[in-house]
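Limitations

Structures in this collection are predictions, not experimental determinations, and the ligand pose is part of the prediction. Treat each record accordingly. The example that follows, with zinc ion as the small molecule, is included so readers can see exactly what is and is not provided: the inputs are given verbatim, and the output is the predicted complex.
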Amino acid sequence: MDRGLDALVVSHPANVRYLTGFTGSSAVVVVAHSAVSLFTDSRYDVQAEAEVTGVARVEIVSGDLWGVGPGAGAGAVEKAVDAAPDLRRVGFEAHYVSARAAAALGGHSERVEFVPTSEVVEAFRAVKDAGEVAAIGAAARVASEALDAILPIIRPGLRELDVAAALERELRVRGSEWHPFPTIAASGPRSAMPHAGTTERTVEAGDWLLLDFGAQVEGYCADVTRTFVVGRRADERQREVYEAVREAQARAISQIRAGMTGREADEKARSVIDARGFGDAFRHSLGHGLGLEVHEAPRVSRTNEDSLPDGCVVTVEPGVYLPGWGGVRIEDDVHVTAEGAELLSDGGTELVELV
Ligand code: ZN
Ligand code: ZN
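Predicted complex:
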C-alpha cells in the first residue's frame, strides 16, 4: 500500500460497495496487505453473506464500530486493527468519518497510529471498467424510456409535482433501483434556479419545463436533464437560448478527451455560451463524474487542473439561467477515453415543444 500505510479503514458506503459488493448503510472494511475484512452489525448478517465477495472475512460485531458514545471503549474497528500485529500506520477516510469518531480512533491502542487520508478509493473509482460503463448505460436507457413514456401526458395545468410523480413511477417500473437524487421538475421562471426543488406550481402555456432526473442500475447512476417548451411553440428568445446551450453541449461532447484537464473540458462549452453573449448566465461547472454516486470524481470544472482519466464517465451539462425569465440546461452522460467521448445517454437534445 502506498502513502506509507499498512492498512486503510474504508467506511464511505459507496467505497465499501465498490470494494466488497456490500450495499448496507453501516460497515467498515479494513484493507491490509494480508487480508480484506468487512465489519458490520447483526442487522446485516444475512445480507453480508449474500453480497460480499472477494473478502477474506466478514465479522458481525456488536456495539459501535468506532467506539463513540457514553462509556464506549475501543470500537470494533480499533480492536480489529489492534489485533493484527503487523499494522502500525493505518489510514482512515477523513472526508467521511465524523470528527467524533476520528477523535475516538487510536485512543486505546499503544501501537497503531491512525492517519487521515482523502479520497484514496475515489481515485480508483474514477476509472470505470466495462461492467461499470454498461451499468451506467443501462441506467441511462431506463431514464430515456421513462421520459419518453411521460412526454405525451405533459401539458399546461399539471403541477410540477404531478410531472415528477409520473416520471419517478416510470423510472421505478422500468428498473431504477432508486432515485439517486431528488427529481427536479422546474417550470417557468423557476427553471432559472439550477438546483430548484419540485413544487405545487402549475405549468402554464409557453413555460419552460426543466426535468433533471436520475436512474440507478446495479448501484450505478445516470443523470439526465431535458428542457421543454410546454403548450405553445417556442418564441424567438427561447430558441436563441436553447440553441446556445445545445451548441455548447454538442461542442463539448465532440471535443472532450481523456488527458484534457477539467478546466479545458469545461472551456469547450463555456466558450460557445460566452460567444453567444450568455457567459454570465452559465454559473456552474460543465459536469461531474458519475458512478456509484451521482457526484464523484472527476470534476469537469474551471477549478480542476487535473487531467480527466482515461475511462472516466462524466456528465456534460451546460446551462443558461436568466432570473425572472427561466433557464435551460441540457445534460447527457459520456464515457471518456483518449479517442473521445462516447454517449451513454440518448443525446436527444433537439428542442421539443410539447403542444
Ligand atoms: Zn442532473
Ligand atoms: Zn449532473
